[in-house]
Queue: 2 jobs
Job 1
Amino acid sequence: MLSVENITKSFTIHHLDQTRKAIGEINLHVNKGEFLGIVGRSGSGKSTILKSIYGTYMPEEGAIMYHSKENGPVNILEINDYELIRLRKTEIGYVSQFLKVMPRTTSLELVTESLLEMGESKEHALEKAKDALRHYDIPESLWDNYPNTFSGGEKLRLNIARATVKAPRLLLLDEPTASLDNDSKLKVREAIARLKADGTTLIGIFHDLEFMDGLCDSVFDMSDKALRYVQ
């Protein structure tokens, strides 16, 4: 499903006139329907890998080959903006610790729009969106409210609901449970397990390694850039 081939990414700090390498010579692979976990200390470049796969960052070297449903194998680093946006809408989901949305869009509208992008009918999308909000304990009283009024935990649960409800072919998870309580973490785990059972391919970063037990098929360790399969 996805191969990250020898990518390198650096950042320039202009006011210090410095260039710092974030990741170098990263190689990892994940098969369709598998869950790959990425582990490593803070600052080791885990999020940089995910953002490169999603197309937010552009590595200087290497390739990121993704087997798309519509066009077959494509290099994420070479496709145009239109093709990248289309992949994000229809095939590749991304969940971070932070919710960034258009202003004056309600929580129910956000989740519903995610499904409309997948070609769902408006009626079906609305019902699935409501089910997702209920699953992640977003109170019905907040469905017609704007997310900028939500607590941090509510924003994060909404962010997860918006991504998982689409059941994307590839889902990237960047520490999505970092600020959640245990009950909410269990709901996220339940949703991830269901997506995996239904064929979604997942790549995730979790500092809570116990959360990953029984979910991951393989683990990429940033300390030695090694990919290991879980027995």
Job 2
Amino acid sequence: MANTVFPVPAPVLAPIQGSDETFPVNRIFCVGRNYLAHAAEMGVAVDKSKQEPFYFNKHPAYLVESGAAIDYPPQTENYHYEMEFVVAIGKAGFEVSQEDADDLIWGYACGLDMTRRDLQLKARETGRPWDLGKDFEESAILSPIVPVAQTGIVTEGKIELAVNGETKQSSNLNLLIWNVREIIEHLSKFYHLQPGDIIYTGTPEGVGPVVAGDKITGSIEGVGEIALTINK
């Protein structure tokens, strides 16, 4: 094996609930505006009959395990939480039908899509990519992944988030505009999905800012819980 000019980064390994094994993370796909009420609070109307889902990516190196304490990120004054249902892919698939989509699912988790909202909105207003607002260090928080063998296929359930004990987001997975089967079908038209890919499926309404010292907690019925502290 050839020598490298600097150390090769270690693989990103996500914990699995109740297991010593880990889930090697390949890519992180995120679905934008996938709850009607959240799209509305962001000032955007979504018409499923005329629009397709859209996506952005986060680098796997930016993944942080639930329970961590992280610093408030640089170059923002409007740092937001977004609670999300996460799907972990365990089988390769390309141009997958909705009928076959469930076969690709390895498990589920709770996720936080942390966002520099001011930078995202600035990019949106100028027609530029969202990378500075979405794809930055410690911006993808993930709870332990629960195998689908334990949960069965999840299509509904309460999704909630609180900041310092005060509920901010409360919705149900059955309110996703594009459900998980539709997302896998659509995304797999553009990418060869691979084991280790994870999909953040979108956030419900109630997003908002956090500041140094805040503690975020969230849960998804039948899936698990997530926690994050913003350092003082």
